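FIELD: query
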Amino acid sequence: MRSEESRKPTAHAAADTTADEAADAADEVARLPDYAERVLDVAELIPPGRVMTYGDIAEWLSEGGPRQVGRAMALYGGAVPWWRVVRSDGVLLPGHELSALDHYREEGTPLREAARSAEGHVPRLDMKRARWGGADAGEDEVAHR
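FIELD: result
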């Protein structure tokens, strides 16, 4: 499980704020919203070599949508296997392609080789084979209904 410290997002106080205002802002940001906590809990359930889309997680939680899941992952997802939460088209997370690719290869996640015409020749995820529906997770592991 994630430690309380690993759940904290990076907060940058503006240069013209007072120390007290910056401390208050950091305290506000340090509290992990309930929705983000549930998103991260689902991300931790995804087995190595498998993935769920942003929309899959929103559907699993019966709350929010792909954008809300993406936002939670962008702000708080560094402490969980973020590379297992993906776009539905299998395109690797822009800016993190090589790091994610290392994880996918290490875990044996099914990939589709990129076409020679594809920019950078970065493979995509084979969503038909890599997608995980959560069938192996117990109902008690994440309250999703």
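FIELD: remark
The beta strands are 52-53, 85-86, 111-112, 124-125.
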